[in-house]
Design goal:
Structural class: alpha+beta
CATH topology of the largest domain: Nucleotidyltransferase, domain 5
Bound molecules: adenosine monophosphate
Shape: elongated
CATH superfamily of the largest domain: ATPase, nucleotide binding domain
CATH architecture of the largest domain: 2-Layer Sandwich
Distance between the termini: 42 Å
Strand content: 25-35%
Number of helices: 15
Number of domains: 3
Largest sheet: 7 strands, mixed
Strand order of the largest sheet: 18-17-12-13-14-19-22
Helix content: 25-40%
């Protein structure tokens, strides 16, 4: 069985296509969403999702989150005594999703289509494939999140051609994609984005507003209290969906702080963040060579677009009513699952062929002669960014000096006008017959294939001499033995048994709410925790269920703020 996975910065989820429809797979806690959070407890047990999130509140040093941003980099995350790369942490999330899917479907899951932000470069994509491999999943395709959203929304379903802009504001990343659907082909026209802008930045603004108003000093309070406040700020931000006034209510030490915020003042403080949304939209439209008027639809996806000030900003600046996808958290996984069905050539579903673009410009270095003087080190783009791949482009360059014997062609990647500021990928040197400057013409051909492999060829037109090189704009592949030793390194870790997860989560939650509460509430929690612990020790199923229900109700009551001492 093959599943579609949305491996998000904040949350992840999996979906599958069965009996002619998409189903979101429920995890071991019966929930659709698994937070992309990993903890390693004192017994080397790996906790993933809701349980890790709960555990992380009291044990932040044993917990890692928001690691997707570091995919494909050498950054390592310290989790307790251990240290992991972003792809290793992602593999734990994938493994958890895979196990849940197997339980849910009652069959083995060996393959997956995983989504990534459209702006992810080749390294980040390869790291995602590796994370899949570490979780024993064959990643049969990486799909761009906005493309998945467009498929889930049903762009092209009516059979007519459609141009749309997908505006995806997730927890930590922002992507804009211009797509066109035409005769069963979903073509990505252009992508642009900001890998360091997301819903969390909007939470941060509320956090800062709260800190200013409450007079609390960030330096003077503990890391844990800061996390409490951030959590309260996020809840406050989300409650703007229902009301124009939202409240942050926290107890730090024994002092209670309550601050309320107007949506209008919040919007004003977010002005700079909102303005940062504009540039990628303009860039993507510009690269796609279309204007806002040419768009049939603007699709909003990603949890961050639930914020009304974001939606209003898009409406005002694009002069069009954007379509909010019904469940922004689910659309990407749904699109990935539909892509699984298309790949399996499911009879009930028509295949949409996806095309991709190269995210960076590829070019070479030349000397520009403007008639009166020469400018060295100039960048000559050959394949412009956002060109649909596969693609092959040619450029003719000429000898720069009299009696030049060799021509050296540097293969560069980047957007700077100055060649030296771009990334050097390789070079080719060919011999040319001596003669006056500008006599010999050299044809430079770049071919970029669907797997992002670049082939460069130079040909001296007068002699026909040709040189060729294939550039894997990627470090060397991990060998089989390296893969095996990496798997071995992770072997000592034990994954928490699925069936214990619910009990563990309620106990962790009780620990946290206990710390956040005072006097009578603490006693009540303590009594129920002890009863539950005894029932668990005695394996008294009936007692476990009854006590767990009671404890959950009490925690819910305390957490919904009915109680005065509760920390929001
Ligand atoms: P995603 O990565 O797409 O799951 O998006 C996660 C982001 O969406 C987080 O920053 C959340 O705070 C944000 N988010 C989720 N629900 C809401 C809401 N109702 N209002 C505002 N932001 C939200």
């Amino acid at each position: 069985m093959k599943i579609g996975i949305d491996l998000g910065t904040t949350n992840s989820l999996a979906a599958c296509y069965r009996n002619g429809k998409v189903e979101i797979i429920r995890n071991r806690l019966g929930k659709k969403i698994t937070p992309s959070i990993v903890s390693i407890d004192e017994n080397d047990h790996v906790l993933v999702g809701e349980t890790a999130k709960e555990y992380g509140i009291l044990h932040p040093e044993r917990t890692a989150a928001v690691f997707k941003r570091a995919m494909g980099t050498s950054k390592s995350f310290d989790v307790g005594e251990h240290s992991f790369s972003a792809e290793e942490l992602s593999s734990f999330v994938l493994r958890s999703l895979k196990e849940d899917a197997e339980e849910y479907l009652g069959e083995k899951v060996e393959e997956a289509i995983i989504s990534v932000p459209a702006y992810f470069n080749d390294k980040q994509r390869k790291a995602t494939v590796k994370a899949g491999e570490l979780a024993a999943l064959k990643v049969s395709r990486i799909i761009n999140e906005p493309t998945a959203s467009a498929i889930a929304y049903g762009v092209g379903e009516k059979g007519k051609s459609e141009r749309c802009l997908v505006f995806d504001l997730g927890g930590g990343t922002f992507d804009v994609t211009v797509l066109e659907y035409y005769r069963n082909i979903m073509e990505v026209y252009a992508i642009a984005g900001d890998n360091f802008l997301g819903g969390e930045d909007f939470t941060r603004i509320l956090f800062e507003m709260f800190m200013e108003r409450s007079g609390l000093d960030q330096e003077a309070i503990s890391f844990r209290d800061l996390k409490f406040i951030l959590k309260a700020a996020e809840q406050c931000k989300c409650s703007f969906s229902e009301s124009d006034v939202a409240v942050i209510n926290v107890t730090i030490g024994t002092k209670k702080y309550t601050e309320s915020f107007q949506l209008s003042e919040y919007e004003l403080r977010c002005k700079e963040l909102l303005e940062r949304l504009r540039k990628p939209i303009e860039k993507a439209l510009n690269d796609a060579r279309i204007s806002l008027n040419d768009l049939d639809e603007i699709l909003l996806t990603g949890g961050g677009t639930r914020l009304s000030i974001v939606k209003d900003y898009v409406r005002r600046n694009c002069g069009m009513e954007p379509v909010s996808l019904a469940d922004p958290e689910e659309t990407v996984a749904i699109g990935a699952a539909l892509q699984c069905a298309m790949k399996d050539r499911d009879a009930q579903i028509e295949e949409v062929i996806l095309t991709d673009v190269c995210p960076f410009t590829l070019g070479t270095e030349v000397i520009r002669d403007n008639g009166s003087f020469e400018i060295p080190g100039v960048y000559l783009p050959i394949i412009e960014r956002n060109t649909v791949i596969p693609v092959s482009r040619k450029q003719i360059v000429y000898t720069a000096k009299d009696d030049q014997r060799y021509v050296n062609v540097k293969i560069l990647q980047g957007e700077s006008r100055i060649a030296a500021n771009n990334l050097f990928l390789g070079e080719l040197t060919v011999e040319v017959p001596p003669g006056p400057k500008g006599k010999e013409a050299i044809e430079v051909t770049y071919t970029y294939d669907i797997d992002a492999l670049l082939e460069a060829e130079v040909k001296v037109l007068s002699t026909g001499v040709t040189r060729k090189v294939v550039i894997h704009d990627e470090e060397r592949e991990e060998s089989e033995s390296e893969k095996a030793s990496r798997l071995k390194r992770l072997e000592y870790l034990k994954f928490n048994p699925r069936e214990d997860e619910e009990n563990m989560l309620v106990m962790l939650r009780a620990d946290r709410v206990y710390e956040e509460s005072l006097s009578e509430d603490r006693k009540e929690i303590e009594e129920l925790v002890e009863t539950l612990q005894n029932a668990l020790n005695d394996k008294n199923i009936l007692m476990i269920e009854i006590t767990k229900k009671k404890l959950t109700e009490l925690l819910d009551e305390l957490e919904t703020g009915k109680n005065d001492h509760f920390v929001a």
